Amino acid sequence: MKDAMTPTPANLRHLLSDATTRLRAAGIEAPQREARLLAAHAAGTDLAGLLRIDTLPPADHATFMQILQRRLHHEPMAHITGHTGFWSLDVAVSPATLIPRADTETLVEAVLDHLPDRNAPLRVLDIGTGTGCLLLAVLTEYPQATGIGTDINPDAARLATRNAARNGLAARCDMLCCNWADGITGPFDLILSNPPYIPHADLKGLMPEVVRHEPARALDGGADGLVAYRALAAILPGLLAPGGIAVLELGIGQDHSVPALMHEGGLRILEIRPDLGKIGRALVMKK
Prior knowledge:
- Methylates the class 1 translation termination release factors RF1/PrfA and RF2/PrfB on the glutamine residue of the universally conserved GGQ motif.
- It comes from Komagataeibacter europaeus (Gluconacetobacter europaeus).
- By secondary structure, this protein is of the alpha/beta class.
- It has helices spanning 12-25, 31-43, 47-50, 58-72, 77-81, 105-114, 133-141, 154-166, 208-213, 227-239, 257-264; strands at residues 10-11, 55-56, 83-86, 89-92, 123-127, 146-151, 173-177, 188-193, 240-249, 268-274, 280-286.
- A 7-stranded mixed beta sheet has the order 7-6-5-8-9-11-10, with helices on both faces. A two-stranded antiparallel sheet has the order 1-2. A two-stranded antiparallel sheet has the order 3-4.
- The N and C termini lie far apart (76 Å).
């Protein structure tokens, strides 16, 4: 007789139906899609491959039940799978960094419009690089460009280094552990940053996935959400090359306060580009 705890084969349709119900009850958005993503990960396939599966074998069934419990406790899907997509890249993630968001791709779109020469030998700096996703996305679009990513967290810098190798870009960039751009010598044709910008009092109101699992240091923008921008306003003019641009991510409602800070620091605003939600997201500037 089998032990009651021994994993058994499971009908995938029934498994997905039950998981969807449980995920919906836990307040997970798009529960049906999330259930399918979990099943695909457990089965070692993708959503298309999942269509060819009727039954999960015992080992995959056990894995699915384990990772379903993690998702029910609001652990981010990217942490469960260990990676996520950004731009044209697949990047590894960890609790040391923010999970790349689609909104941040707005910065890459802005760069492409303001620097139209794809063969330009750009020198790029990404301040607070996290997973390295912004810098690496730009390098894929500009094959002659080179770059430096900085992060105060050594675990983040190591992760960004791995992501550069993962995407075949290690020869064109260095990921360094430092505070902002300490010890970095310009000039740079392009400076990128997605800094911490959530006002401290607002952190507790963020989604459980964010509050429980993403690093507060990468989110907390101080009392007014502007601490990081003040630091950037002080250093960007000295790092930008003549004709170079800086592109920063903005938080909700910061499309007036941050440009004012940057203008006071000696930068000229070229554009505030909205994301798909019509929120001013990418601030483009030059000296």
